[in-house]
Amino acid sequence: MNGFVWRRAVAVARKEVYHILRDPATLGAALVLPVFMVIMFGVAIEFNVKNVALAVSDSDQSQSSRRLLDTFGSSGYFLIHHVSSPHAGITDVSAERARAALVIPPRFEQDLFAGRGAEAQVLVDGTDNSTVGPVLGYVGSIQNMASQRIGGFDPSPPYEIRTRFLFNPELNSKWFVIPGLTVVVMSILSILLTALTVAREWENGSMELLLSTPVLPLEIIVGKLAPYGILGIIAVVFVYVIARTVFGIPFVGHLWVFGFGCLLFLITYLAQGLLISVATRKQTVAMQLSMMTGYLPSQLLSGFIFPIASMPAFFQYFTMILPARWFMLIARDTFLEGSSVLELAGPFLALALICGLMVFLAARRFKRDLEP
Amino acid sequence: MNDLAVEVKGLSVRFGDFYAVNGISFTVRRGETFGFLGANGAGKTTTIRVLCGLLRPSEGLVSVGGISFDHNEQAVKAKVGYMSQKFTLYNDMTVEENLNFTASLRKMEKATYEQRRKELFDFISFDKPLNTLVRDLSGGTKQQVSLAAALLHDPEIIFLDEPTAGVTPASRSRFWQLIRQLAKRNKTVFVTTHYMDEAEQCDRIALMREGRIIALDSPEGLKTAAFSTPMLEFDPRGSLSFAEVSAFARHDVFLFFEPYGLRFHAAIKSEDAWETVRNGFEKNFTIKRIKPSLEDVFIQIVEGKAG
Amino acid sequence: MNKTLIGFIKKELVQTLRDRRMRVLLFVMPVIQLTLFGVALSNEVKNIRLAAVFDSKDTVLRNVYERSIAGKWFIPARSSEQDPFTMIEAGDADAVLVPPPGGFTRALGRGDAKLQLLVNATNVVQAQSIEAYLQNIVQQTVRDDLEYTPLPPPIRISTRVLFNPSLDTSVFMVPGVMCMLMLMSTMVLTNVAIVREKEMGTFEMLISAPVSRSEVIYGKTIPYVILGMSNVPLILGVAVFAFHVPMRGSLIALFIASFAFVCTAVALGTLISTYCKNQQQAALAGFLFNFPMIMFSGMMFPLENMPAVLRWLSFFDPLAHFMGLLRNIMIKGGQAEYVVTHIVYLTIIAVICVVASFRRFHTTLE
């Protein structure tokens, strides 16, 4: 056996490209999927809690109680509907018709005018604890506003906090989600398609045929993976273009830094896909495994939506072995913060290490199984 | 009772604009071993699929086992056994589990099934444990178990679509012994193949090309029909250059002159013409008169039609 | 019962369960994953790295900082940088408190205390929580330190959190993860099981027997409904015993809801499989459906935040209905009307999928 011959790798790659091109459904899905996901989530995702359904039981029916309701309504956070009793309000919360219930007692106006202080109660659904915080915050500021408007009371504290939101001054959810989507999209395309395509060759027995030719295992790997790498890169370009043009998301970093991160991440996942397929040799198992080791972690444990800092200490360390965690950092940073490569040295180093390790493991396993 | 197992009149199968099978007609008698010969894509598999009730004909009349089916595939399916090109056993199940499943597809009674399974295992001389995984069987055994699965419900007509593709020559001849035994039991066997030596063993052969039947007869009949004149085999005395060979091949005394291993097979147009040029050839070849092989027939017919 | 159906069920179960790896993936992995994600995932923002710029005389700001660190949300940021912006840009801190010139304490005395809070807003959810947490802490600290008690406002709105007063994250996350795992082990598995037969050519053998369309469809789906349902007690056990998610509603309602969902997921998988030619396509299609289904289920963000036009999308998402059902039954005890309505919705989706599968499914080859 002699050394690596590019021509043979290219021949394998050409075969793989034919496979992909002959299968317009896969190609279509691979290219349409990212576009579809970005547009869908760009339009749909919103982390700022609003449209909170509020069931109101107003037993006072006075001018003051109505003005209190106006304050809730005009805040823009609540969608109000009336119910007959406090009990009905709670039923609405149980039946998911309302996320909170406002109970105004009968002597609300009387208490207010008598100077005893009027009291109302908000019951919040604690099931989704992520919405409870914001809702309680809204209620607090409405209490102040209502006191001011209805009770002529100025509660302003002797200080003022001015918050400056860096990198995303308007707290736009899209700016947060879409750069992260590049990671999820790539994790789906690269790891899954690779794992399946190689496992399929095993199942069909065509891998043995390939190996019986003078093609080296390394040439097979490179040839089989390159087209999927390119597919992954095309998908990222799509996501990038849509993010910039359709959703106007800024990109303040260097493109080459982002591109380099993409490449490292892609190679890591291609290698992981290969490792899975060599180890399982069966498409069903390969698929389940790539879902569990590639797709789920990059969606759930990468910091895409659920912050890593909030995880228990063990998981904060555990997620360090996930390439998606590091690429997520790089993607978000290059889009919104624009740090230099030096400042991103940590994530890059980690990603490179994992990448090297994965390629090493995949190559060794491939060699051990295939070379006589 | 009808003596015909299969009756096909003007059958066409169209996929879009493409005619996979184009207006073929033929009949197969009960107990006959009927061969289907042709290149890949000639329409053999498509025809078989129609006959098994797997595909609906676009046009034409088809009657299998006396049932003419007009959207009544299920009745046909019950009468026939089918073994397709690929090994259609589940690799990840045992022999027993595979056969159990086949039996349940055919809704067989447990007792009948077990009786039948025993017979079939005797028939194919299967002696491995029943709980062997199919993936651990050799190609030849796998194919015999496939046959047993296709025969499980004791069908009158058995369709075998390239049953011997990819197995060893020893297994092939063993498999054909089984086919001959089936014929002895008065089963109709309908088989497609690439192998000429297999086709020789059929009672009758239909030759398909581009969706049409271009010849249909017994092997002997085909040979006589294709070659009214004798066939010669040329064994070169020394090595010949390409130019020399093509010069011989173009000689207009031949109907054709084709390589056959290291030798050449040729059919001559007439004895008289041959006698005039014979001496010229004998310098270079040892020449012997032979009976044409089916392969020669195949070439002659296909070349003839193509021309 | 029909012989063919029984044969089918046996065969599918044998094929799925023979492979040891598949058994592990089906029964052990969901438990591990639920535990893993249940422990790891939280939508509560914690461990925020906070820095504050103050000198020794600025006691109020120091108290704010110390109080923050003493609470459960903040941890001190370590940075060699001095400039607050650089601290955030370098990724050393998530938030920095910057007092007005002369310190916050003295500015409070002057009456124009403007405290700046710099937040890294790359993560929107985190940024919002940081602001809310700090507003609260500053208010408390200023009140205590200046011994300033604001006048009671004339209107007071007291708040009470229902069903999960301690705001335990796992109460929310665990049912979500349960649904997600059940989706994966049903829809995708069914889809692949059918497509595999087509790809391997065994499908041809199957339909060469006189089997009816419904025998094939039910034969291929019932086993996966069984497998899916067998997962329910397993992950329910983990949720209730390991994560102490309350189980306030009736178990029967929960099983009916799970059954409706598993049937829907299996039916959807069957429908998708009729469009796929090989396993690669099936897997891709699985993801194509999986990802949006999870996103629109309400697990990642509350559905009412979405634009109204898109909210109808979640109506078609079986996962959204099931997640709602699971939470409602487990945490709220199951409000009859809600439970019935959503089980009906699930059933409607399942019936549509089954009918569509029947139309697309043939016992002849195309």
What does this structure look like?
The complex is a heterotrimer of chains A (372), B (307) and C (366). Chain A is an alpha/beta fold. Chain A has two domains: 6-45 and 171-370, no CATH class; 52-151, 3-Layer(aba) Sandwich (abc type-2 transporter like fold), CATH 3.40.1710.10. Chain A has helices at residues 6-22, 24-44, 63-74, 86-94, 108-113, 129-151, 173-204, 206-212, 217-245, 255-280, 283-301, 313-318, 323-337, 345-370; strands at 52-58, 78-82, 100-104, 118-125, 159-166. In chain A, helix 2 packs antiparallel against helix 7 (173-204). The longest helix of chain A is centred in the middle third of the chain and has 32 residues, at 173-204. Chain A starts with 5 loop residues before the first helix and ends with a helix. The mean pLDDT of chain A is 85. In chain B, strand 7 (157-161), helix 6 (169-184) and strand 8 (188-193) form a beta-alpha-beta unit. Chain B has eleven helices and 14 strands. Chain B is an alpha/beta fold and 307 residues long. With 366 residues, chain C is α/β, with parallel strands linked by helices. Chain C folds into two domains: 3-41 and 167-360, no CATH class; 48-146, D-Maltodextrin-Binding Protein, domain 2 (3-Layer(aba) Sandwich), CATH 3.40.190. Chain C has helices spanning 3-18, 20-40, 59-70, 84-89, 104-110, 124-146, 169-200, 202-207, 213-243, 251-273, 279-295, 308-311, 318-332, 336-360, and strands at 48-52, 74-76, 95-98, 113-120, 155-162. A four-stranded mixed beta sheet of chain C has the order 2-1-3-4. In chain C, strand 1 (48-52), helix 3 and strand 2 (74-76) form a beta-alpha-beta unit. In chain C, helix 2 (20-40) packs antiparallel against helix 7 (169-200). The mean pLDDT of chain C is 86. Chains in contact: A-C, B-C. At the A-C interface, helix 2, helix 4, strand 4, helix 6 and strand 5 of A face helix 2, helix 4, helix 5, strand 4 and helix 6 of C.
* Radius of gyration from the alpha-carbon trace of chain C, in angstroms: 27 Å
- Low-confidence segments of chain C, given as residue ranges, are none
End-to-end distance of chain B: 44 Å
Q: Under CATH, the topology of the largest domain in chain B is which?
A: Rossmann fold
Q: Strand-and-helix sequence of chain C, N→C? A: HHEHEHEHEHEHHHHHHHH
At the first level of CATH, what is the class of the largest domain in chain B?
Alpha Beta
Q: How many strands, which pairing sense, and closed or not: the largest β-sheet of chain C?
A: 4 strands, mixed
Within CATH, the superfamily of the largest domain in chain B carries the name: P-loop containing nucleotide triphosphate hydrolases
Q: Can you summarize the main beta sheet of chain B?
A: 6 strands, mixed
Number of helices of chain C: 14
**Secondary structural class of chain C:** alpha/beta
Order of helices and strands of chain B: EEEHEEHEHHHEHEHEEHEHEEHEH
What is the terminal-to-terminal distance of chain C?
A: 30 Å
